[in-house]
Design goal:
With 324 residues, this protein is of the alpha/beta class. It folds into two domains: 162 residues, no CATH class; 148 residues, NAD(P)-binding Rossmann-like Domain (Rossmann fold, 3-Layer(aba) Sandwich), CATH 3.40.50.720. 32% of the residues lie in helices and 24% in strands.
Length: 324
């Protein structure tokens, strides 16, 4: 049997694969982490699925026990049997350890409610939070998980830093959208990343940024005359992170221009500049790493709230997935 695991991160990615399998009439088991204690590679509520052919999409342990999860899922599919499997501390499998310590319980469901999964996917695609409820025991104990939309980043820029950051943000798992006045950049990113770059025809072009609370916006220009109109629109949105490339001197001049355009001081202070965790870099690839790292820190923080008790009451978890 092939050891095929696709290490995809976000719930939307797993649900999109589920949609593909449902459309073909294929069977699969849905796997969910329903209890974690101590150090674990993934968060509570993380999803994966295993097809009838043994392919696994998503992961629960960063490789140390995923193959065993996959084999258990195949057994559940064959028997049409729903099962909770326990790994780590107190597990009946002493030979399957979690190197990071702690324990993990996963729910394997060979017959998940397909309509519910597709409704959750519809919500995430529409950039609305999606909720799934998992029955974690025969004592009517349940876990309710809210999955937030995939972190999205819109990059406006041109040149080497723009191209390098776009590629790295896409590799990091962000939903990436690009704006550029440069046709060569548009062609290069289309060929390298399959992205359609929206043209910026002039510094004052009216662009619909479509930024929500799970979004970030970056300007990556060396010729900063392209920035003001874009940043003016960005600060009027609920987007979580706004950053701009350039020196500290450039950033102070940028803020002065925006204030002169009528932007509120509090809105202008939302702009992180110079963007990037490491200052004064002169390599496009390293700047891209520094920028993406700051972006990840700002956009991808998890917020977990677990309440409720045993019985019919739900445990409630607010889950914002990582992009790593």
């Amino acid at each position: 049997m092939p050891d095929q695991i696709t290490y995809t991160e976000h719930a939307q990615d797993v649900l999109e694969k589920a949609h593909e399998l449902i459309s073909r009439g294929d069977h699969f088991a849905l796997i969910t982490s329903v209890d974690i204690k101590g150090g674990t590679a993934r968060e509570l509520g993380s999803l994966a699925l295993v097809t009838a052919l043994g392919d696994m999409f998503g992961y629960l342990s960063n490789g140390c026990i995923d193959q065993d999860i996959r084999l258990n899922a195949l057994r559940c599919l064959a028997k049409k049997e729903r099962k909770i499997v326990h790994y780590g501390e107190g597990s009946p499998f002493p030979d399957l350890t979690l190197p990071c310590g702690g324990k993990l319980k996963v729910l394997i469901d060979p017959e998940p409610d397909r309509q519910v999964l597709m409704a959750a996917l519809d919500d995430l695609v529409a950039r609305r939070p999606a909720r799934l409820i998992f029955h974690t025991s025969q004592a009517a104990q349940t876990l309710e998980v809210e999955y937030r939309p995939k972190p999205k980043v819109t990059l406006a820029g041109r040149g080497a830093v723009f191209r390098a950051t776009t590629k790295l943000a896409q590799l990091a798992g962000f939903d990436v959208s690009c704006i550029s006045p440069d046709e060569d950049d548009a062609t290069a990113l289309k060929d390298a990343c399959g992205l359609t770059v929206h043209p910026l025809l002039s510094p004052a072009s009216a662009i619909d940024l479509s930024l929500d609370q799970w979004s970030a916006f970056l300007t990556l220009f060396h010729d900063h005359s392209w920035e003001p109109a874009l940043l003016q629109r960005a600060v009027q949105t609920p987007c979580r992170f706004i950053g701009a490339l350039g020196s500290q001197k450039t950033h102070e001049a940028r803020k002065a221009v925006l204030l002169a355009m009528g932007c509120e001081p509090a809105d202008v202070e939302r702009i992180h500049g110079p963007v990037g965790l490491v200052p004064s870099l002169r390599s496009a690839d390293l700047i891209a790493v520094a920028v993406t790292a700051e972006l990840a820190a700002a956009v991808s923080r998890s917020q977990q709230v677990v309440t409720g008790q045993k019985g019919s009451t739900c445990q409630k978890l607010v889950f914002e997935p990582s992009t790593g």
